[in-house]
Amino acid sequence: MTLAEENYLKSIYHLENRGISGVSTNAIAQKIEAKPSSVTDMVKRLAEKELLHHIKYQGVYLTEEGKKRAKQIIRKHRLWEVFLVEKLNFSWDEVHDVAEQLEHIKSKKLITELDRFLEFPKKDPHGDPIPDQYGNFQPLDEQILAQLEVGESAICAGVKDSSKAFLHYLDQKGIKLGDTISIVEKEPFDQSMVIALDERQLTITDRISKNISVKRI
């Protein structure tokens, strides 16, 4: 497949995983940042390769082969992110763009050996699960921070928003994966909350708490 085709498959897969039943060409255009006409042409091409189905007025659905290909790309992307953070000292807000380039490397042996070299990681630096060589994910028993109540504590396990701006915000606030977060106060009006973190307290907005994944302790 071409680089563009791989990007489309991965983007459609992510949109489907958000619970969208039948992904519209407009949603794909927004995700890919492309013109709707270009999306229509690519959808036709991927449909001819039997990687997706396009049902008029219902949207786009990946075939099983399409899902398999998408998960292979995601696997490579997330393994490279682990490598960049653990072995090359990249920060978690720097790795996405570099991994976007590395994910298109075709060598299966390279990815197999990379996985072995990294000792078969289950999550990337943002807490997202890494598919194994067969495309299987390890189920994650996680909630979002916003679901916790006053007095509860949890381990920071990942982020829903992996944009540079959000990750940079977390770095500024000193919030990172593995931190223990306790809920001190919760404002009923706007759902903002005061959290305890490393013997200090921070106030975060509802938007922030809805984009942090945690595991209750």
From TrEMBL:
Per UniProt, subcellular location reads as: Cytoplasm
Listed Pfam families: Fe_dep_repr_C, Fe_dep_repress, FeoA
Going by the UniProt record, its keywords in alphabetical order are: Activator, Cytoplasm, DNA-binding, Iron, Manganese, Repressor, Transcription, Transcription regulation
Q: Where is the HTH dtxR-type domain?
A: 1-63
Name the InterPro entries for this protein. Answer: DtxR_MntR_Metal-Reg (IPR050536), Fe-transptr_FeoA-like (IPR007167), Fe_dep_repressor (IPR001367), Fe_dep_repressor_sf (IPR036421), FeoA_core_dom (IPR038157), HTH_DTXR (IPR022687), Iron_dep_repressor (IPR022689), Transcriptional_repressor_C (IPR008988)
What stretch or stretches form a coiled coil here?
A: none
Q: Which PROSITE patterns match?
A: HTH_DTXR
Specify the superkingdom: Bacteria
Please give the subunit comment from the record.
Homodimer.
The record's family statement is: Belongs to the DtxR/MntR family.
PANTHER family reported for this sequence: IRON (METAL) DEPENDENT REPRESSOR, DTXR FAMILY, TRANSCRIPTIONAL REGULATOR MNTR
Function per UniProt: In the presence of manganese, represses expression of mntH and mntS. Up-regulates expression of mntP.
Q: What is this protein called?
A: Transcriptional regulator MntR
Q: What is the lineage of its organism?
A: Bacteria, Pseudomonadati, Bacteroidota, Flavobacteriia, Flavobacteriales
